């Protein structure tokens, strides 16, 4: 920053402690991003050549019925007016009603988001538990067969069309072996049996103390979660390896080795400790991607998640649902980003 | 030893390059040598070269017209006479469709690879170099696009413009550029504060010149690595759009659309969906292998691996 | 089992080393019926509003109607349901129903003539999409209180003209004829919506089942009504699960996780052959697949071109290949099993004849046309087959593919050259299709009769409109049928519609399930006769 260093530092225009300022700036930038997100989504919804009125009235509607719904949806108002009304409603926590499900969007999201959340969480756990050790070992034993296998596993994971993998997985593990439950979140025997508290069936069944329901739900989630997890495994293991290699070639590692520390201690106490922060960013990023909901996986496993919800809504021009869903997903993404940035600041010595 | 008497190899590997051109070519050549030692990357490169070859010579290689229908001869299994990879639901030769589909895949890959990184590079370098309000605005925009669920953005875009391969490419590019912008911005920030840029600036070079002549070339290598690694994702995204019916339109032999058509028979006529699936897999894998190898060569941060 | 499944299973066996026995197939409980079906088209469960296939299935099992079909004997036509009997006035305009005594809604409220009157008036007053089925009898929100009247235990309906009684009663068997519980519904009224918002996601009926839950795109759960007047149904619970993919539905059926799979492709139906404990139930449905030619197009409006294109469709090739057992050739607008339906299918792929007709019309070589198709595999395949055969006569056919709503929007705006789509009848009377394919009183753009297929294709019907009007008021059934035969004969020769196929629903079904009826061509599915 040599060139700019002679610029005098301006006095902060608000006499606040630094942590409050940085928090304020973060909040401000998050809200601007959210507003932009809303606006772009809104625009997309309006320029799309799909008619939301038709989504409501269907093929047979007469012109008169069509016009009635057109006005009911407020489409006769100008775009800007519609946008302001919408933002006003959202600020009051009202996402409007979905055209497709005949209920408030917030209620829909409360139903579909936990399904995705559950799936993504199990998926990311799967990805971390296998991906991180694989990456560490690959880095430590660089060039060995473990490294090669890790590389192949990861690259295959990157390269496989997920819908094909999903269908084949279903055919093998469900259709032929019967090791896992079929499509959907639970078996019919437990359908509507567990009171919904969190919307996550695994958690709800524990709350209800029904272990049968828990294992049933687990058997349904394990396959789609592992398939999703495979993708994050690929990413996480590659990144872990790369970070580890960087650390292992650093001078202090050589010093530690020279000092006679055991290899295990060098790897775990020094190298791995130092990549934790970078790793958290990577994990947060892949977690955010999983939380967006994988439309294709959700279709194949009949998983009523948010990706599927937004997609269907989009293709039927159900804009309240699209906007609501996008806001939630965007918020999750931004929150995870802010969170990993925070961790970075807290843990990373360099950024201090 | 005069230059004439050197072999090309010696000239390239010379420890004391006599011209800037020689130095640059030497660097490329050393990179190539490193890359060549990486068997997996070479395998990837071979597949890509093969893909390009197949695409160019498609009319010569394809045994049948990829659009010719024969309803009486549909869903033939692998190894059928005249149809080595069988036929699809409308009795079209799968091998011929795969061969012609290579052109579409290449087309997608090339277009996205042209659009997304360049947009990202522009946004990122301008943002990083200019700083201040420009930076804040551009990065907010980038954040907005990053925060969007990716497939949803692509879907919305395709739905707005109408299904079709060009629009699918645009939609994918639209979702693909933000990471490049971030990357380019980060690189620009590092480069901007380096001494040699200050020196150039003191010589009176304007920002346009600095960005195009000095910052871009330095960003390119990490971008190339990133693009190659993303290529698989792009192919899969295009296939995903095809799978949802929003990519290439029938009767186009786009691989994703072929999987989508074939998925109805996946339990009994598995090859109809599996053959294009394997093609996508092979090409994605090839790009991943190559990207992995290129990273070793080009990305200074990971040069140790 | 084919080679691949064998391959996979041997691979699986390898993986399963140490696992001595594969787990036994699961089975659904004996008092529960589980159905895999695409139900993402349900957007409302209010009978006055619902107009989609899956919604009709649900509503048929929840609500009683004045007259209804017996699932075990659809051929018998409409039968008494909540109305025990009815009489027709001498001028033929008033039908008086006597209500069945002692029937109760799920809420415990008695089913009264007032409820029936409320339900029908409500349809007219709410004026949602399906309302035309009643308003075609001259009912308007203003006069409906006067033409639908209650006297003690009887309900009278007075139409504006004399119509065939069967026509009126058939219309009452449609989804909107469901009788709702006035007291319960009005308890939930909001801003004068007659309980519409509440009823979209709740039920207030008297039928064999009550609605336990509808989770959009996930499942519908019905619970048996033990007090159903015709005897409690055997299946305590019916769960309809949304499963998008045919392959997945088939796997679930083979595993015994569902009893019925309703969206199987022909390939998956074939694949069920020889699977133990699973059979296939086939029912002719009312849905037709057709292509239509926009009469605003200068070339397409020539009569020879319309006929030529009908000879450029490979009906048999498609029926015997990718549509096998799924769609059968049918070239008339009345579906088989309807009054007045005919079996004449004069068109087949005939290149010579088509070329002759095109030359006669002076169609320029290399004409380009665009066909709008919804994104659905079988339609895309039909479109590609058309593309193939049209090309042989020198016509280049471009596909415009989009989501249903996208293409439909253009179709309704008369913007497509050619439309490839499906049409399902709304109620089991010939008027349902005659009144849209061959009826168009005002062909001007200003008329905006977007509900009429003839209008959408800018076709003035060449005089069929008056014949359709005459047929609908004909009291004599045989005469009426004869009139429809003639309308269809002329329709085949002059209309811009190439009707191609009629749907046959093929449901994979567990062999222990008996008595399931999917509704044939005239109504929706019924679960209350099902036993296991």
UniProtKB/TrEMBL annotation, chain B:
UniProt-listed Pfam families: BPD_transp_1, OppC_N
UniProt keywords, alphabetically: Cell membrane, Membrane, Peptide transport, Protein transport, Transmembrane, Transmembrane helix, Transport
Residue runs in coiled coils: none
GO cellular component, one term: plasma membrane
Record-annotated ABC transmembrane type-1 domain positions: 102-291
Membrane-spanning residues: 40-62, 104-130, 151-176, 196-216, 228-249, 269-291
PROSITE patterns: ABC_TM1
GO molecular function, one term: dipeptide transmembrane transporter activity
Keyword Cytoplasm among record annotations: no
GO biological process: protein transport
Membrane-topology annotation of the record: Multi-pass membrane protein
Localisation per UniProt entry: Cell membrane
Main localization (coarse): membrane
Highest rank taxon of the organism: Bacteria
InterPro entries, per the entry: BP-dependent_transpt_permease (IPR050366), MetI-like (IPR000515), MetI-like_sf (IPR035906), OppC_N (IPR025966)
Family per similarity comment: Belongs to the binding-protein-dependent transport system permease family.
Descriptive protein name: D-ala-D-ala transporter subunit
């Amino acid at each position: 920053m040599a060139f700019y260093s002679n610029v005098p530092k301006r006095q902060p225009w608000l006499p606040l402690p630094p942590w409050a300022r940085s928090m304020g700036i973060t909040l401000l930038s998050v809200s601007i991003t959210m507003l932009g997100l809303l606006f772009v989504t809104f625009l997309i919804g309006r320029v799309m050549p799909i008619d939301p009125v038709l989504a409501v009235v269907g093929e047979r509607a007469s012109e008169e019925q069509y016009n009635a719904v057109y006005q009911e949806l407020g489409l006769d108002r100008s775009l800007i007016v519609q946008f302001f009304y919408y933002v006003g409603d959202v600020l009051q926590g009202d996402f409007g009603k979905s055209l497709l499900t005949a209920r408030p969007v917030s209620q829909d999201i409360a139903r579909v988001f936990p399904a995705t959340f559950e799936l993504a969480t199990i998926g990311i756990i799967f990805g971390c538990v296998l991906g991180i050790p694989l990456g560490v070992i690959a880095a430590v034993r660089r060039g060995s067969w473990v490294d090669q296998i890790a590389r192949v596993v990861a690259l295959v994971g990157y390269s496989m069309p997920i819908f094909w993998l999903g269908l084949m997985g279903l055919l093998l593990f469900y259709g032929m072996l019967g090791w896992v439950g079929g499509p959907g979140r639970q078996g019919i025997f437990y359908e509507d049996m567990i009171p919904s508290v969190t919307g996550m069936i695994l958690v709800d069944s524990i709350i209800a103390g029904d272990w049968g329901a828990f294992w049933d739900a687990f058997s349904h989630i394990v396959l789609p979660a592992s398939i999703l997890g495979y993708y994050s495994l690929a990413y996480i293991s590659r990144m872990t390896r790369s970070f580890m290699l960087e650390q292992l070639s650093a001078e202090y590692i050589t010093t530690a080795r020279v000092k006679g520390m055991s290899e295990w201690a060098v790897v775990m106490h020094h190298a791995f400790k130092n990549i934790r922060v970078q790793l958290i960013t990577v994990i947060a990023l892949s977690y955010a991607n999983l939380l967006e909901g994988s439309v294709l996986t959700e279709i194949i496993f009949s998983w009523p998640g948010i990706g599927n919800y937004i997609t269907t809504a989009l293709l039927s021009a159900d804009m309240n649902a699209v906007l609501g869903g996008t806001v939630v997903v965007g918020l999750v993404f931004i929150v995870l980003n802010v969170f990993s940035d925070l961790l970075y600041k807290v843990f990373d010595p360099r950024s201090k | 030893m005069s230059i004439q008497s050197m072999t090309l190899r010696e000239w390239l590997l010379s420890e004391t390059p006599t011209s800037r051109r020689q130095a640059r070519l030497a660097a490329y050549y050393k990179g190539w040598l490193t890359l060549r030692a990486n068997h997996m990357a070479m395998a990837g490169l071979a597949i890509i070269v093969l893909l390009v070859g197949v695409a160019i010579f498609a009319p010569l290689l394809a045994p049948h017209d990829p659009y010719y229908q024969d309803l009486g001869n549909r869903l033939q299994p692998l190894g059928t006479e005249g149809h080595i990879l069988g036929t699809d639901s409308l009795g079209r030769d799968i091998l011929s469709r795969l061969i012609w589909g290579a052109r579409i895949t290449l087309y997608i890959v090339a277009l996205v690879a042209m659009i997304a990184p360049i947009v990202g590079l522009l946004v990122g370098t301008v943002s990083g170099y200019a700083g201040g309000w420009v930076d804040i605005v551009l990065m907010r925009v980038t954040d907005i696009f990053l925060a969007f669920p990716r497939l949803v953005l692509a879907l919305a875009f395709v739905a707005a413009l109408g299904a079709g391969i060009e629009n699918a490419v645009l939609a994918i590019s639209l979702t693909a550029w933000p990471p490049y912008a971030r990357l380019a911005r980060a690189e620009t920030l590092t480069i901007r504060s380096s001494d040699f840029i200050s020196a150039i600036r003191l010589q009176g070079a304007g920002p346009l010149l600095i960005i195009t002549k000095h910052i871009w070339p330095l960003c390119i290598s990490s971008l190339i690595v990133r693009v190659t690694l993303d290529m698989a994702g792009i192919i899969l995204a295009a296939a995903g759009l095809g799978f949802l019916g929003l990519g290439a339109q029938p009767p186009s032999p786009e691989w994703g659309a072929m999987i989508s058509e074939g998925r109805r028979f996946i339990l009994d006529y598995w090859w109809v969906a599996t053959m294009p699936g394997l093609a996508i897999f092979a090409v994605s894998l090839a790009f991943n292998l190559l990207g992995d190898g290129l990273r070793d060569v080009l990305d200074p941060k990971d040069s140790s691996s | 089992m084919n080679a691949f499944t064998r391959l996979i299973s041997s691979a699986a066996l390898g993986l399963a080393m140490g696992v001595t026995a594969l787990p036994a197939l699961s089975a659904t409980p004996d008092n529960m019926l589980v159905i895999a079906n695409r139900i993402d088209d349900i957007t409302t469960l209010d009978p006055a509003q619902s107009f989609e296939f899956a919604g009709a299935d649900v509503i048929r099992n929840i609500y009683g109607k004045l007259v209804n079909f017996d699932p075990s004997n659809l051929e018998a036509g409409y039968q008494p349901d909540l109305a025990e009997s009815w009489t027709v006035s001498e001028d033929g305009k008033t039908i008086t129903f006597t209500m069945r005594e002692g029937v109760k809604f799920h809420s415990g409220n008695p089913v009264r003539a007032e409820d029936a009157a409320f339900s029908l008036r409500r349809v007219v007053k709410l004026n949602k999409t399906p309302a035309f089925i009643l308003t075609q009898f001259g009912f308007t929100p203003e006069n409906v209180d006067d033409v639908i009247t209650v006297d003690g235990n009887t309900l009278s309906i007075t139409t504006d003209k004399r119509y065939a009684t069967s026509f009126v009663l058939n219309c009452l068997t449609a989804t909107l004829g469901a009788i709702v519980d006035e007291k319960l519904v009005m308890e939930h009224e909001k801003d004068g919506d007659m309980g519409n918002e509440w009823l979209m996601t709740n039920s207030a009926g008297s039928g064999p089942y009550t609605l336990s839950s509808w989770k959009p795109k996930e499942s519908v759960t019905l619970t048996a009504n033990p007090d159903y007047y015709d005897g409690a149904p055997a299946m305590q619970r019916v769960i309809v699960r949304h499963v998008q993919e045919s392959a997945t539905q088939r796997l679930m059926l083979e595993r015994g996780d569902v009893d019925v799979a309703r969206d199987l492709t022909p390939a998956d139906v074939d694949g069920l052959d020889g699977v133990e404990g699973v059979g296939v139930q086939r029912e002719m449905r009312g849905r037709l697949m057709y292509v239509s030619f926009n009469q605003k197009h200068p070339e397409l409006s020539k009569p020879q071109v319309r006929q030529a294109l009908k000879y450029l469709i490979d009906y048999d090739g498609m029926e015997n290949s990718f549509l096998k057992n799924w769609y059968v050739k049918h070239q008339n607008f009345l579906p088989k099993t309807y009054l007045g339906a005919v079996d004449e299918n004069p068109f087949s792929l005939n290149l010579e004849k088509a070329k002759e007709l095109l030359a006669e019309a002076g169609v320029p070589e290399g004409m380009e046309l665009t066909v709008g198709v919804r994104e659905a595999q079988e339609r895309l395949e039909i479109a590609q087959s058309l593309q193939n055969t049209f090309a042989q006569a020198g016509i280049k056919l471009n596909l415009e593919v989009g989501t249903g709503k996208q293409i439909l929007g253009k179709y309704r705006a008369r913007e497509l050259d050619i439309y490839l789509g499906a049409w399902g009848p709304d109620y089991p009377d010939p008027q349902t299709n005659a009144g849209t394919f061959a009826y168009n009183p005002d062909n001007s753009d200003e008329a905006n009769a977007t509900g009429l297929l003839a209008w959408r294709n800018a076709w003035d019907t060449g005089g069929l409109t008056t014949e359709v009007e005459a047929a609908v008021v004909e009291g004599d059934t045989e005469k009426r049928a004869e009139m429809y035969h003639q309308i269809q004969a002329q329709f085949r020769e002059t209309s811009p519609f190439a009707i191609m196929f009629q749907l046959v629903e093929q449901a994979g079904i567990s062999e222990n399930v008996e008595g399931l009826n999917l509704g044939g061509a005239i109504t929706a599915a019924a679960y209350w006769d099902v036993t296991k």
